[in-house]
Amino acid sequence: MKKHNVIILTTGLSGSSLFTKLLCKHGYWCGEKTITKNNYSGHYNTYENEVLVKLNQTLLDKCQVDFSVQDQFDDKLFAQIEKLSQTIDLKPYTAFIKECDNHQPWVWKDPRLIHTLGFWLKLIDRENCRFLYVARRPWWLWVSFLNKRRLIDYTTLKHYETQSLSKSINALKSWGGLVELFYFDDLISNPKTSLGRLNRFLRISISLEDFKQNSHSTPTFEHKAQIQIKAILIYLKNYQQVPR
Question: Does 58 or 76 have the greater pLDDT score?
Fold first, then answer.
């Protein structure tokens, strides 16, 4: 059975790299080169197609956006970038899509897609795509943000994340796109159920053993407590600099 291409939407720090990794290990193409990061969380592969990230950044640059925490949740960017398809040279973007199509099925994942998706939807074969929105429960997303020194108020982050999720899913549904919401927290706490949903949606067969081989061990109670305490201390120490 032919596999659909997959576009993963996420605002970042939501475990989307694990979802993408599982798909890549299952035959989805994520590019000749992928983005590797080295930060507070260590050295790791994001499984983001390097060319896709560069092209998305080019689109953001044209709107004079540096993708800071504030820009990341700017709900005006989507419409701005979507309109660029009428004014810029599309050859680099269509060439990239052609290259991806030569390696079908492919998977795209980049937090910038939250803003650039409208642009890409004018160029890709929508009917041959399935969309995953990978999110994290607001509290754990906030903890993750702070542990990576990305300062933001919890209430603000919760509002923007909920708004972004709702707008993205509603927009995709209005375009006739097939989209499914997955929470990273659920994948970790109950992988059998989450993988069952993922497999049914994409008509694939990622096993529980695949998940165990490609994911880190389930965090202990002590580890969860430590990272929450650390996040709160970072927040309090930098309280005056926290954007609201």
Answer: 58
Assigned token pair, 67 = 């993708």
- Rounded to 5 degrees, what angle do the CA atoms 35, 122, 26 make? 40
pLDDT at 87: 94
Between CA 165 and CA 171 the distance in angstroms is 10
String of DSSP letters for the chain: -PPPEEEEE--SSSSHHHHHHHHHHTT-B--SSEEEEEETTEEEEEEEEHHHHHHHHHHHHHTT----HHHHT-TTHHHHHHHGGGTS--HHHHHHHHHHHTT-SBEEE-TTHHHHHHHHHTTS-GGGEEEEEEE--HHHHHHHHHHTT----HHHHHHHHHHHHHHHHHHHHHTT--EEEEEHHHHHH-HHHHHHHHHHHHT----HHHHHHHSPPPPPHHHHHHHHHHHHHHHHHTGGG---
Phi, psi of 9 (to 5 degrees): -105, 140
The lowest-confidence range among 6-10, 39-43, 44-48 is 39-43
C-beta of residue 30 within 8 angstroms of C-beta of residue 214: no
Per the structure block, which two tokens stand in for 204?
A: 């694939």
Report the alpha-carbon distance of residue 131 to residue 6 in Å, rounded: 6
Q: What is the pLDDT of residues 204-232, one digit of tens each?
A: 999 999 999 999 867 888 999 999 999 99
User: Tens digits of per-residue pLDDT, 189-202?
Assistant: 999 999 999 999 99
CA distance 67 to 74: 9
Hey, what are 119's tokens?
């642009």
Task: Tell me how far apart the alpha carbons of residues 44 and 100 are, in angstroms, rounded to a whole number.
Answer: 23
